[in-house]
Amino acid sequence: MEILGHYHYWVFAVLLMIGFYALVAKQNLFKKMLGLSILQSAVFLLYITMAEREGGTAPIIQPGVADQLYSNPLPQVLILTAIVVGISTMALGLAIVVRIREEYGTIEDDEIRRMDRRP
Amino acid sequence: MTLASQLPALQVVVPLLTAPIAAAMRPRDLAWLVTCAASLTAFAIAVALTAGALQGPADTSLRYDMGGWPAPFGIALVIDSLSALVLLVITGSSTLALLAGRRAMALDIEPHRQPLFYAAWLTALAGLCGITITGDAFNIFVFMEISSLATYVIIAAGPERRALTSVFKYLITGTVGATFYLIGVGLIYMMTGTLNLEDMELRIAEAPSRGPVLAAAGFITVGLALKAAVFPLHVWLPNAYAYAPHTVTAFIAACSTKVALYVLLRFDFMVLQANLPEHAAQFAGYLLPLALAGILFGSSVALFETHLKRLLGYSSIAQIGYIVLGAAMLDRAGLTAATLHMFNHALAKGTLFLAVIALGLRLGQANLNLSNLWGVGRAMPWTMGAFTVAAASLVGIPGTAGFISKWYLVSAALQQGPWAVVLVGVILISSLLAVAYLWRVLEPAFFADSPATLSEPIAHQSWAPLVILWLAAAANVYFGLAPQLPVELASRAAAILTAGHGAAELLP
User: Fold this and answer.
1) Out of B142, B152, B162, closest to residue A92 by CB
2) Which of A29, A82, A93 sits opposite B182 (nearest CB)?
3) How many Å apart are CA B474 and CA B231, to the nearest integer?
4) Which residue of B has its CA nearest to A89?
């Protein structure tokens, strides 16, 4: 059960690899950006799941309830920042893809490379 | 609460808050002026902080608690000799590039976009300063992304369309690097429950298991090596340098890879190495061969490159190899050489790219193939004169800054027992290759007949780029003859880096 008990790490690793595969193997620049987004989502998941504790609740102190188990709020706050960073990266990346489409007329990496090689 | 005590925060806040002001400035010359003023202020702050870090014993560090929150809970800013040296490099190169590049940027970038361009420049500057000054692992990530995103924007402002494709490649690689770093920080946080670098160092020793920390060390090292363009993770660098506006290249080439290397040194030596006995051997075992391969690869490719800026870019890959080589020796002498070379290489490469700004004004932005440079030495003797001085510094001719760090690197290599011959051999071969590839630029520039393109300058020559260029070239000579300041900073930095783990381990 050790392996299944860590299932969220497996989800993290699989998502990371899917994102990485798209980055490396896809020629379409838009699909590369999608891969990047999946890669980053995998890391968001890593942070969010690490904060969770079995039987833990939201970290709000209630009067009259002692010894309550809380989830750690800090990783979620951190990852909120990272999500914002991820969105900015996505926006900038897509803006560059749009500009590439305007200049080259295509967003296929191999075609762009062929056009660049021709003087 | 005096102004002096707030300087660490102001180092980041001044460029960050000036960025929106620059974006709102019309006419555009005013935007340039505001940007220069902010960059100069940042440089002055860096000088003041350096003076503070140099007072007292070697491990002096100034601390600043952001918002008054004490250290492991709030974000602490830490200025020691290592970060002071990197801050000097960042703010200095930004200021010189801005002052020299006014005309070039006015020609390169559409007028209505210029204020926004300057805003992005200042954001990049603030981000780089932030990475250097902060003592918090997650804060480093945030500043890394701030500086990277802004850097992508100013590189994409390049006049050729290939700027876009090269910046896209840089964006993908840079984001993967930052994401790897984030994974590493997450794993360490899982084990230690802290993000403050110094607190981390203490708590890793008590971590319930070593596995995740070792994995984190791998993720962090690879992620930062991607950002720092350590061979073989360098593919984004030559094109990003080549197609950026020349002024941006002068700024980026001098400092952005150095900042990633700085974080790499700080994390690997100050946080991880003291607590992971396996880590030192692995760090050296992987990075030393890569450094040697990178040195030889970068120099050899530069030998056959036909575009001036790409040639200098490949030379940067070799020079990054020197810095990593020094770090991979793991001892004090090696780390002194590595940090010293960060400073001196920034000086030499920055000066070379400042000369490229002047060349671009005369020859046109896109005409920087080596064949365009024939006879340019006689047409522009001052520019190419400074280029020659900086080239001598890059090679390591005695009397220039480059010689000092090569000297330290070779003396550190000589202490490496049986490996010394190989290390010194690689350094010497690479220096000879550097002579060869720079000669390929200089020989036709001074001794060949000039082509027709030279007869009609694209833009009216102004004195500002030349004055700045010669100021930078003079700095190369000055720090070659009187190297006390960088040497003092570097040896103190090495002392801080090695403080955690007693005797230095030998190579595997």
Assistant:
1) B152
2) A82
3) 31
4) B149
What is chain B's Cα-based Rg? Answer: 22
Report the SS3 class of residue B78. strand
Omega of the bond leading into B232 within 30 degrees of 0 (cis): yes
- Shortest alpha-carbon distance between residue B176 and chain A (Å): 8
Closest-approach residue (CA) in chain A for B146: A85
pLDDT in tens, A91-106: 999 999 999 999 888 8
Measured CA to CA, the distance from residue B427 to residue B321 in angstroms comes to 10
- Min Cα separation B166/chain A (Å): 10
> For residue B79, what are the β-bridge partners?
B62
CA distance B352 to B387: 6
E-strand stretches of B263-334: none
Name the residue with tokens 């006049």. Answer: B159
- Tell if the pTM clears 0.80, that is, is over it: yes
Q: Taking residues B31-55, what's their average pLDDT?
A: 90
Q: What letter does residue A70 receive in the DSSP assignment?
A: B
DSSP B74: S
B/e letters for A68-95, b = 16+ CB within 10 Å, e = fewer, are eeebeebbbebbeebeebbeebbebbee
| Residue of higher predicted confidence among B122 and B379 | B122
Q: How many helices (H) and strands (E) does chain B have?
A: 20, 2
- Label the pairing between strands B76-79 and B62-65: antiparallel
Cβ atoms of B415 and B285 within 8 Å: the answer is: no
Q: Exposure string (b/e) for B121-153, b if CB count within 10 Å is 16 or more?
A: bbbbbbbbbbbbbbbbbbbbbbbbbbbbbbbbb
- Cα distances from B209 to residues A72, B82, B215, B270, B282, in angstroms, run 20, 31, 11, 19, 18
Q: What is the pLDDT of residue B453?
A: 56
Instruction: Report how far residue B137's alpha carbon sits from residue B264's, in angstroms, rounded to the nearest whole number.
Output: 12
Buried b (16+ CB within 10 A) or exposed e, B397-415: beebbbbbbbebbbebbeb
DSSP, res B353: H
**pLDDT tens digit string along A38-81?**
999 999 999 988 887 777 777 787 787 777 788 888 888 899 99
Residue type, A106: T
Three-class SS state of A108? strand
**Which pLDDT value is given to residue B372?**
78
- Provide ipTM, 2 decimals: 0.93
Closest CB from B168, B176, B189 relative to A96: B168
Which residues of A are less than 8 Å from B141 in CB distance?
82, 85
pLDDT at residue B458, rounded to an integer = 52
- pLDDT tens for B127-171 read 999 999 998 999 999 999 999 999 999 999 888 888 899 999 999
Structure tokens at B75: 């974000």
Residue B297 tokens read as 């690869």
pLDDT of residue B505: 37
Tokens for B215? 């994995």
Q: Determine the Cα–Cα distance for residues A93 and B149; give it in Å rounded to an integer.
A: 9
Cβ pair A112:B165 closer than 8 A? yes
For residue B155, give how far its alpha carbon lies from the nearest alpha carbon of chain A (Å).
11
pLDDT at B451: 62
